[in-house]
Amino acid sequence: MTCPYCNQTISRNINICPHxxxxxxxxxxxxxxxxxxxxxxxxxxxxxxCGIPVIIERAEVPQFPITIGPLAESKLLxxxxxxxxxxxxxxxxxxxxx
Length: 98
Ligand SMILES: [Zn+2]
Known about the structure:
This protein is α+β, with helices and mostly antiparallel strands.
């Protein structure tokens, strides 16, 4: 099977993807924050470095494959049970405007 989050091949009967740490037995992902590049990848690597799985969901505008500014915003998703922890981590990292 392949991981639905990072599309890497993974073995069956495991609960956590070894590539992106996504929990495979739950689909309980919640929005952590909406940010703009390059903060999305900064936060992603920071959260992953702390052991929290992250999915980046980028707003794609079909007629503008390369988006700039507000069109290119990214949502960071984390498992619901890690939301509190993730929120505290990003608050210490950046000031986020919602
Ligand atoms: Zn994965």
